[in-house]
Design a protein that fits this description.
Length: 150
């Protein structure tokens, strides 16, 4: 069974319990970041915390903040993480199936019902298998490793 790691900053806090409970009610093993939320918390802390857990336990990560932008930027600084900012189910599918995303970042503006749909699509989608996607991901890995040359 896949393990899901959930992190939210102060902007995503309003949906933290709902998302965690939704995942649990669907039989998904979810771990919520234990970092403290407050009005002055910083999204990079949550992105880093969740990404480390995703890598250590080979799970998937879900990050929620106001827009998803800052979380995705911070998450993508962690070697081995492929994080996509997603707005809908199609984005979640493409992020995982084409781009090998192991973390998604979602803005609260999409609303809770859409977050549920996004999360469901992300979890249900298989990783990349087509040669063209695997080739492109190998190039991204080479960029990350500093060995890529055009």
């Amino acid at each position: 069974m896949i393990k899901i790691f959930l992190g939210v900053d102060h902007q995503g806090l309003k949906y933290k319990d709902e998302i965690a409970n939704y995942l649990k009610s669907n039989g998904i093993d979810v771990t919520v970041s234990k970092l403290a939320n407050n009005a002055l918390d910083d999204y990079p802390d949550f992105a880093y915390d969740i990404c480390q857990k995703v890598l250590q336990e080979k799970g998937l990560g879900i990050l929620v903040c106001s827009t998803g932008i800052g979380m995705s930027i911070a998450a993508n600084k962690v070697k081995g993480i492929k994080c996509a900012r997603v707005f809908n189910e199609d984005d979640a599918f493409t992020a995982k199936n084409h781009n090998g995303a192991n973390v998604i970042a979602i803005g609260t503006s999409v609303g809770l019902d859409n977050i549920y749909k996004i999360v469901d699509a992300f979890i249900a989608t298989k990783g990349p298998s087509e040669e063209r996607h695997l080739r492109r991901l190998a190039k991204i890995d080479a960029i990350e490793a500093g060995t890529y040359h055009v």
